[in-house]
Write a structure and sequence with these properties.
This protein is an alpha/beta fold. It is built from 20 helices and 17 strands. Strands 3-9-8-7-6-4-5 form a seven-stranded mixed β-sheet, with helices on both faces. Helix 7 crosses helix 14, helix 15 packs parallel to helix 17 and helix 16 crosses helix 17.
């Protein structure tokens, strides 16, 4: 039999010799010689500096963002401090701000600004007239199906029903379950209906929220807290397709969760699964897939994403949409995506889009209660009592819940068939137009198209002049139409196709001509390497939405018509004033201050 010697050997000058204990001491001897002539305090200082420096270097290198990304951002930050560059950037930002405010002023030129509470209440007729005047502001005929998405259905009879239902429940608040148990029952039923639509088991659960972003906020909060408690993850990240909704990035900023975006396949415009798999690491708490995504309307491979979630220590998959729940029942084929797929643990679905409920309603669903449990927030030591709430909102509108509750399956199924039929009809015709191509294979209601021949924003500009409002896409350039029930009206789809065809034919006469005007900004924005500049411009636009003239130019409340004042009319004036944006409770007003020291 072979015997293995317990002695190791060392090679010296090509010859083998037994390993001795002195060989282990050689590194120590070298260190002793290096520090032998130094004072103890010097040895301690060098040791501490080396250790701390190593820790700093490790922390600097091993961050969520790459060295290239951080270095590039720092470069642009320093470059903008150069006086000449700073002046140029500031001049462009000032111009953009003035343009935004001018556009707001022009849109509201026929309206009177009210910046102080009217001294006297207004009559019902005056209030309703003012509301009508404000609702007429705008340049697009959305009722005629000229807008992509935004308004997903408008039936006067349905609006009347929703108005009556909301009015009956407008004062209710499910936060006070003892006062309004019926509203809580309605919410529970809406959630259970949604779970059943998405093939959830008896263990599936969820809550209603105020919209898709709110649903995503709740899901990420739940997964972050679950991963922290059961897996000890304190530096979480999520892996998402680059086409996933921007709300994931928003919540990443809110919760300090790193968002690892993965590119899509340039042919299918579904997430590249090889890159997706490589993006997963030990700190990943959530895997995201879209069904469908916003830009192109394609559905990611949810089965493959969910399989990765099962393989990599129960990472989770979150996806969103509502019309997909009924597409298969409407006669269309669709790859599996919901709770039928093992590994899918949450679904966000907006009831206020293709659910046709009033704006401000969505659902977040979970496959098991353990996730929902971590969505809840509970405060046990508050002097005001034990406080618990299921979502980020404390008080919630019971009227929205009641209005969402008042819908039936048959109506949804018929609407889904109309919408998807119309979307397929538009897709087929757009594919046949010379100079255009369709991105990927749209799964439901979104058709995105671009051009390899001319600047696609020229087409967007031409259609805009004809009264169409489409969504502009970037990286790569494109435009899309989100088909809603508004587009299923007689003649709308045919008119859209005819306008796309005629505008494209006109552009093809001189395809090399650059885009000009407002649409040129979209192409230019993509070419700017410093994305923080685009962010600053976007913030200016958001500020402009809250524009009111300065006090001395604003109309005083006395210019508004008045009516005899009594209790009901005095309170009715609040109907057309925006509610306070800071939390207000009886006898308590919380004021948030930021002190700059």
């Amino acid at each position: 039999m072979w015997k293995v010697s317990s002695k190791c050997v060392v090679t010296v000058s090509g010859k083998m010799r037994p390993f001795s204990g002195n060989d282990c001491l050689k590194p120590v001897t070298v260190i002793n010689r290096a520090f032998g002539a130094r004072e103890p305090w010097q040895v301690a200082t060098i040791t501490a500096t080396t250790v701390l420096g190593g820790v700093w270097l490790w922390t600097f290198v091993c961050q969520n963002e790459s060295l290239y990304t951080r270095g590039r951002r720092q470069f642009f930050r320093i470059a903008k401090k150069i006086p000449a560059v700073r002046r140029q950037v500031q001049a462009e930002l000032t111009k953009a701000n003035n343009d935004f405010e001018s556009a707001i002023k022009e849109s509201n030129a026929h309206l009177t600004y009210t910046v102080t509470l009217p001294e006297k209440g207004l009559s019902k007729e005056v209030i309703l007239k003012l509301v009508d005047d404000h609702l007429k502001t705008g340049h697009y005929e959305w009722r005629d199906g000229r807008v992509s998405g935004a308004v997903y259905g408008y039936n006067p009879e349905l609006v009347q029903l929703v108005t009556e239902v909301y009015g009956k429940a407008s004062y209710t608040n499910p936060l006070h379950a003892d006062l309004f148990p019926g509203v809580c029952k309605m919410e529970a039923e809406v959630v259970r209906m949604a779970c059943n639509l998405f093939h959830g088991s008896n263990d599936s659960c969820g809550t209603m929220t105020t919209g898709g972003t709110d649903s995503i906020v709740m899901a990420m909060k739940a997964y972050r807290d679950y991963a922290r408690e059961y897996k000890g993850i304190t530096r979480p990240n999520i892996v998402v397709p680059r086409t996933a909704h921007a709300a994931f990035d928003k919540v990443g900023q809110y919760f300090n969760i790193h968002v690892r975006s993965v590119d899509v396949d340039p042919e299918t415009f579904e997430v590249d699964m090889k890159k997706f798999k490589r993006a997963i690491n030990r700190n990943t708490i959530l895997l995201v897939g879209s069904a469908p995504n916003f830009p192109y309307g394609t559905i990611d491979d949810i089965e493959a994403i969910a399989a990765l979630g099962v393989k990599y220590d129960s990472k989770d998959a979150c996806l969103g949409s509502f019309v997909v729940a009924l597409v298969r029942n409407a006669g269309y084929k669709l790859r599996p995506f919901d709770f039928d797929v093992k590994g899918v643990t949450s679904i966000s679905a907006d009831t206020h889009k293709y659910g046709f409920a009033p704006k401000g309603s969505s659902v977040i669903l979970y496959s098991e209660k353990k996730f929902k449990d971590h969505q809840f927030t509970v405060t046990t030591d508050w002097p005001g009592g034990v406080y618990g709430s299921p979502t980020v909102n404390g008080s919630r509108a019971g009227g929205i819940i009641a209005a969402c509750w008042a819908f039936g399956y048959d109506g949804y199924l018929e609407a889904t068939k109309r919408i998807v039929d119309t979307a397929r009809y538009i897709e087929r015709d757009v594919r046949d137009i010379d100079g255009l191509f369709v991105f990927g294979k749209p799964a439901t209601s979104v058709i995105a198209f671009g051009s390899n021949v001319f600047d696609i924003f020229r087409l967007s500009d031409s259609l805009c002049k004809l009264g169409w409002n489409l969504n502009a896409l970037q990286f790569p350039s494109g435009i899309h139409i989100c088909v809603t029930d508004m587009h299923t009206q007689a003649g709308v789809a045919d008119k859209f196709i005819a306008d796309v065809r005629s505008c494209t034919a006109e552009i093809m006469k001189d395809p090399g001509q650059p885009v000009v005007g407002k649409m040129a900004l979209y192409g230019m924005a993509q070419s700017i390497p410093d994305r923080s500049v685009i962010g600053e411009v976007t913030r200016l636009f958001l500020h402009s939405m809250y524009y009111t003239p300065s006090q001395k130019y604003a109309s005083a409340s006395a210019t508004l018509p008045t009516a005899p004042t009594h209790a009901s009319i005095s309170s009715a004036v609040l109907l057309f004033l925006e509610p306070p944006r800071t939390p207000c409770y009886p006898s308590n007003i919380y004021i948030y201050l930021q002190l700059e020291l």
